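=== Discrete structure encoding ===
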Amino acid sequence: MEVRLLLRTALAVTLLASLSLAQQESHNECLSRNAKSCGECIQVGSRCAWCTMSNFTGVGESNSARCDYAENLKERRCDERHVESPRGEVRVLRNTPVSDQGTKLPPENITQLAPQHVRLTLRAGQPQKFNLTFKRAADYPVDLYYLMDLSYSMNDDLENVKKLGTELQQRMKEITSEFRIGFGSFVDKTVMPYISTTPKKMRKPCSTGPDEVCTEPFSYRNVLPLTNNGSQFNELVSQQKISGNLDSPEGGFDAMMQAAVCVNEIKWRNVTRLLVFSTDAGFHFAGDGKLGGIVLPNDGNCHLDPQGVYYTKSNYYDYPSVAHLIQKLSENNIQPIFAVTKDFYSVYQELSNLIPKSAVGELSNTSSNIIQLIIEAYKALSSEVILEHTKPPGGVAVSYTSHCKDGSVQTGDDGNKCSNIQIGDEVTFSIEVAATGCPNDGKETQIQLRSLGFNEKVLVSLRFVCECECHSTGIANSADCNHGNGTLECGACRCNEGRIGRLCECSTDEVNSEDIWASCKRDNSSAVVCSGRGDCVCGECVCNKRDNANELVSGPLCECDNFSCDRSSGVMCGGHGKCECGKCVCESNFTGNACDCPTSKKACQASNGQECNGRGQCVCGDCKCNDSKYQGATCEVCPTCPGACDEHKDCVQCKVFKKGPKAAVCEERCRTLNVVSMAQLKQPGELDSLMHCKAKDEDDCWFFFTFTLDKLGSPLVEVQEKRECPTEPNILAIIAGVVAGIVLIGLALLLIWKLLMTIHDRREFAKFEKEKANAKWDSGENPIYRSAVTTVVNPKYEGK
């Protein structure tokens, strides 16, 4: 039993392995893509390799057979030295270590990102990884440009900003010794409907308040480029005056765009760049300019006047879109801080969510909390590291995995971020770059990685493996390519113009299709040429020859043969037909896949002339009974039908036990019945169609037998040797038992009577005792009794 179980297990494992292998072969991407050269092959998948052996393929076999998994090529007897499968690599070209915190360095010499230059060699499907380290430096320089809304509603805020320069400079010195501050202001475009263009309103745009505190409206003004002189900031801001406009949204996006792209005019350094945007209103964006007749989209360029003060193209270009503004802020490494009032906090919070490395803070009604707001926003921005990269060429994908200081590992959309980075903290990012196909036509290109808000960049050079090394050693006009009709390259022929075929043996004038293999494949889709049993020669299949001359492969695609038909009893087509194209063509009196079924039904005719006795169907010359209880060649025998036991019990009784009504004529009447005597009968579950019988003889004994059919369909009776007879009664024991029973019953009755009498007497005695205790006797004298004593009382006696 254990051996059988082991065999079944081994068979199941083998079957599963075969199915797995077959499934793997059916999904072989290397073969399915029909690569015609080594370069095409290695672009199909990372596991695909090319065999460069000159005699690897047979006559008429496609060169695409050279492209397969490396292990498969070796199994197909391609020498390992001729298996071409180039690999990608990572090479670090410049790696200046990140700066030590204890070393005071000029801004241009501070290193926070390492390495600085990496070269990746990419093969399709083989991602390359390298690690990027970021270490936050101490005392890193900061440039802060304060951009303020000077519409009339910001009048009280301006008073607090006028003394912002020196106070903010003192606070920022706690963070960095290299701090510069600048100031710019904005209102809106100077056309209707944003402002009133009447001369009076242009001169006096404020509807309330004294006229002398209100200046003419403007779009954007660069009041003070970045400087380390806080007193100068206070002085120039103190000279600013409020202006006015008509609608609530302001032209802040115009101002932000100019402040971001006018790098030289604002005097931005390659350090941390902060742009504080202070307002109490919303913003105009792309499309709003059409209300004022401005239809040209914003070009994202600097348009300040020669003095670098006023925006000159405000009424010429539309407002920038949100996406355009985000792009320019990112390109110029500027981190915006939105300082807005409570009413518009939610609006700018949504805007901040769209801009990486941005912050939003709630400004008090008078901007009195602006310094604390800026300090908190700077700390939040500088403690977060977000990596980004320039757009790679098509077919190249870049992904990140961050290893932050708390031990957390993040992938996907958050893989390029780490938060809560303090000065001196070091984090690592794993960068994975993958390519598909041959990006950028195989030309070397570059992408840049950087951390938002910091000026450093990492240069990543990309080289693409689009050809094999053997490509450069090809032999032009090689004699191996049909007398010089092609270049022998990587073991295969690259045909000259006008020639096709594995060895360039075919002319395009002779072959209708440029793909000569298409006509040698089924439905032009199968990767198997000529059904795997022939060679494709100039678009026609030449079928293989068999060792046995009588076995032939034929057909336009070598899809037919005369030796793979079904067999019956080890004989092809049962010896009653011939094999044509993989199928049996049977003789007239036989049918079936293997011609093993006679068409005649004579063998199924029962003794009553009916087919299968009317209880079955004749299938392939044999009766298939409709009910399993019917057996025999023609369904005439029913061993389990009622009456079978009674029919055979007399013969069983006479042949085995020499008794019964047929004892005298047993040899004559029961001669044909096959009766076998045995010690123990088979159980019902051990044999199909086995009927168990039992009968009682004249001795009142039970005998048991079974009835079934043997292998030849003849009745077979098996009889249990030992009958089951009732035992004779023991008279003495019966009498003794009866007497003992009577005596015991009498004694039991006496005991019961004695017990009942005792209980009765005790109850009567208890009743007597109770009545005796409760009896009450009269203690008076006899009424007829007279006492002999007479007492006389003297009336004069006073008791003295």
